[in-house]
Amino acid sequence: xAKELRIGMLGCGFMGRAHSNAWLQVNHxxxxxxxxxxxxxxxxxxxxAQLEKxxxxxxxxxxxxxxxxxxxxxxIDLIDVCVPNHMHHDCVIAAAEAGKIVVCEKPLAMxxxxxxxxxxxxxxxxxxxxxxxxxxxxPAISLAKQIIDExxxxxxxxxxxxxxxxxxxxxxxxxxxxxxxxLDAKVAGSGVTGDLLSHxxxxxxxxxxxxxxxxxxxxxxxxERVHAETGKTEKVEIDDACMFLAIFANGSIGTFESTRYARxxxxxxxxxxxxxxxxxxxxxxxPHILQxxxxxxxxxxxxxxxxxxxxxxxxxxxxxxxxMKNWWVPGCTIGYEHxxxxxxxxxxxxxxxxxxxxxxxxxxLRTQRVCDAVLQSAREKRWVDIPPE
Length: 389
Ligand code: SOE
Hints:
The chain is of the alpha/beta class. It has two domains: 3-132, NAD(P)-binding Rossmann-like Domain (Rossmann fold), CATH 3.40.50.720; 136-380, Dihydrodipicolinate Reductase, domain 2, CATH 3.30.360. Helices cover 33% and strands 25% of the residues. It has eleven helices and 17 strands. The protein has helices spanning 14-29, 48-58, 67-72, 88-97, 112-125, 139-149, 177-180, 185-188, 192-208, 336-351, 361-380, and strands at 3-10, 34-42, 62-64, 78-81, 101-105, 129-132, 156-164, 211-219, 224-226, 233-235, 241-248, 253-259, 268-275, 278-283, 289-294, 311-315, 384-385. A hairpin with a 4-residue loop joins β11 and β12 (253-259). The relative contact order is 0.16. Bound molecules: alpha-L-sorbopyranose (SOE).
């Protein structure tokens, strides 16, 4: 029986597009009882032209320039928070208090203190909630999770993650404004740590369990940039690059590297996990491939015959692979936008009595705590422990 799920979208930028597309597409590929309806979208008065264009392109029934009005409307069931990070806290708490289902873009918040208040609000209200770490729903990453959970790499020793881009190398790139708020610490909270490493940390903890200790170094290469909104040259307060070492609860050790100054790298989100029996490697710039190295059979302990040992490139497009039976025929790839569709399909399934959706806000708070510990470590130049939940 179809059930309307009336969406109130907060934000009309890059993530507003990715989410709107996913809400519109999800019923075309996944059988779900809920039918998303794009009811209203919020954007700032000063961005009205963009807001109107956005509403028209995606088919929103109405626009609002005061986000609280969207939250208060009783013809809306779900608030989707795609505004910049400094607004997540207020929007999520208001939405929870209004009894709405709450979806929030990553990272959860500006810091863990804000995140704690958000988790308390959604849990007090008892509303379904989720945070959009969309990369868990890349089929090849889900397959890596399956392979690890099946014991096929055995005891893990090393976890190695990178998340590198190159779009801020020029000193002429301004900070702030609709397009570049991620460079403005007052709006983003942090630089690559919150924006990019939060993805790597979410994936790492999902695949390899909790991180318990970190030591980090951050760098800001360009110290001042023009602010797009004030027109003035202002100090850059974000981390342009961050590297940290991590110790996992399972005894394995990790390295994490992220920068927006890796000339040539656009969205180079990679991980490799090396275990006793095998290894997996993934690169988001080659998203439909999972590399798998098999050293020994996990059930028998028997070593793979020498002449067959080697890295296997698995083209993750078969019906048997995660999510792929809902898409095309084997061999036909899917892309970035589909990760959001897969994610909302899982979230709708959880609303309909399916498995509990993860990451919810409580889970994303852990990622936030690791990010905070990384930044604290870089500031204080020492190892920092991450408190257990
Ligand atoms: C930044 O460039 C960014 O858009 C992140 O904010 C996204 O979360 C990431 O998926 C792609 O890169």
